[in-house]
Amino acid sequence: RMPPPATVDLSQVHLVPTSRLRRPTKYKWKIRIIFYLCFVLLLQEYQIDIFFAQTWTDSRLRFNSTMKILTLNSNMVGLIWIPDTIFRNSKTAEAHWITTPNQLLRIWNDGKILYTLRLTINAECQLQLHNFPMDEHSCPLIFSSYGYPKEEMIYRWRKNSVEAADQKSWRLYQFDFMGLRNTSEIVKTSAGDYIVMTIYFDLSRRMGYFTIQTYIPCILTVVLSWVSFWIKKDATPARTALGITTVLTMTTLSTIARKSLPRVSYVTAMDLFVTVCFLFVFAALMEYAALNYYSSCKKPNCTKKKKSNYSVLDMRPPPTVITLNNAMYWQEFEDTCVYECLDGKDCQSFFCCYEECKSGSWRRGRIHIDILELDSYSRVFFPTSFLLFNLVYWVGYLYL
């Protein structure tokens, strides 16, 4: 038969239990993960629901009885001493009280105590997003005593101290659960040395959402910008509208991609990809601007006559005879310009719009590139360079 409660000195029970040799009390921990509620990326925090079990021995609560284990309700929790455990990286935490307080208190006849409660914790997790969205994280749950240093209280992990429930009930929409790790360390502070216990939740991000939301639209927008290379250079409205539309589309995609991220000051993997795609789209628009400029504005200057030692090439076509109503007329072309090409300054540049530059001084150590054929070059250069970029990007972030 257990002695009546009056035989227990409650004024002493609220003090930390110690042995006669004044050795620190040893506490063992066990945590069972029920399921994750959510992971908030913008706030860099996660919410977790756990059963938190603590075990220690208090010799003052020994009793002689045929009953080895005494199970008590939550009303008795306030009548005994319990550890002042805190979660160091928690933002908010709450216990469950519906329909009754979710607490369990068991006392063995040798003074061993088991105290279990259910908690929902919002804990901080500092994320390094350099490889986002191919990143992996270890989110910690850190706890220790609030006021008792290691000279008075020692924390230890129980065997198989961390258990996880069926992962089918976990709501990790953007992450894959990779495993659990638990560690212990001593943290030195001005108030003393404290034993700190830590559980790490290893997570790997799933790319499916970001592939559909960002990567595929960016790739398709870049490919769409290449359509202008197959449109005639004289179709200025069509090519200009296509180029501006793709640039604005990339701007919108870039803005949407950044909304789901914290405002970090460094470049993430997604930022790099979106930026390069934007540059490809913008370069396609600039390609037509250059082509249009050289094809329409690169004409001989007829108003200015310069004295030079350059050889002169007369590019005027010969006059033609037109017969109208049995009358013959001589037709002279209005463009009576003489273009200085063979030894002129245009033959000293790398790009040339005129076939005549192939002769003369142009052959001396230079390669003839016809600007009017810029679309033909772009049809090969843009897809090839974008393919090489994707090869380096995905291999570098996924396998290196």
Please give a handful of descriptors for the protein shown.
extracellular ligand-gated monoatomic ion channel activity, Acetylcholine Binding Protein, Chain: A, chloride channel activity, 400 residues, alpha+beta, 5 helices, ion transport, 7-stranded mixed β-sheet, signal, Gamma-aminobutyric acid receptor subunit gamma-3, Methane Monooxygenase Hydroxylase, Chain G, domain 1, 32% strand, disordered N terminus, 3 domains, 4-stranded antiparallel β-sheet
Description:
The protein has helices at residues 10-13, 208-225, 236-259, 269-297, 374-399; strands at 25-40, 45-57, 69-72, 85-87, 90-95, 103-108, 112-124, 136-145, 153-164, 175-189, 192-205, 313-314, 320-324, 327-331, 338-339, 351-352, 369-370. Strand 6 (103-108) and strand 7 form a beta hairpin. It is rod-shaped. The strands form five sheets. Strands 1, 2, 3, 5, 6, 7 and 9 form a seven-stranded mixed beta sheet that branches. It is α+β, with helices and mostly antiparallel strands. The chain is 25% helix and 32% strand. The model is unreliable at 1-8, 301-315 and 329-343 (pLDDT under 50). It folds into three domains: 5-206, Acetylcholine Binding Protein, Chain: A (Distorted Sandwich); 209-297 and 378-399, Methane Monooxygenase Hydroxylase, Chain G, domain 1, CATH 1.20.58; 313-367, no CATH class. Heteropentamer, formed by a combination of alpha (GABRA1-6), beta (GABRB1-3), gamma (GABRG1-3), delta (GABRD), epsilon (GABRE), rho (GABRR1-3), pi (GABRP) and theta (GABRQ) chains, each subunit exhibiting distinct physiological and pharmacological properties. The chain crosses the membrane at residues 207-231, 237-257, 264-286, 380-399.
